[in-house]
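Below is how a single chain appears once it has passed through the pipeline. First comes the sequence as given, then the structure the pipeline wrote out for it. We keep one example in the README because the format questions we get most often are answered faster by looking than by reading.
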Amino acid sequence: MHDQVLRQQLIELLTGAHAHVGLNQGLKGLAPSLRGKRPAAGVHSIYEELEHMRLTQEDILRYTLDPRWKSPAWPEGYWPKRPAPTEAQWKACRTAIEADLAQVCALARRADLELTSRIPHGEGRTYLRQILLVADHSAYHLGQIVQTRKLLGAWPAH
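Resulting structure:
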């Protein structure tokens, strides 16, 4: 019973059900013309933040599941090359981030997996740590997306 409660709360944390906006709410109503716009010097565009979230989430997930996974070079491998996406890049980013998030949620739901057990190839890391890392990192960057939208005059989402 306690295990099910923990797993459900992890899902809610990952999907933004409580303390922060979720991915869909953070991007709701965003005009395509604002996806790649930087509102000020030193501030990433919404696409840069989203693609960074995607790349990082993918790395954490693949590292957790595949002992052969090779992480990208830090930091350049975790950020897009340009601030503005093409329509195809935006759609691919959205599709991939949602698919990988569903896999992280599926990992959290796996009843056969002891969340506090160490990943066999994970340098002492646990499955729970990896799930929390995805949630923490995503919440931070969703906050950055909200802040960027505020600076662009495109928040609250409608």
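The mean pLDDT is 94.

See the next section for the split statistics.
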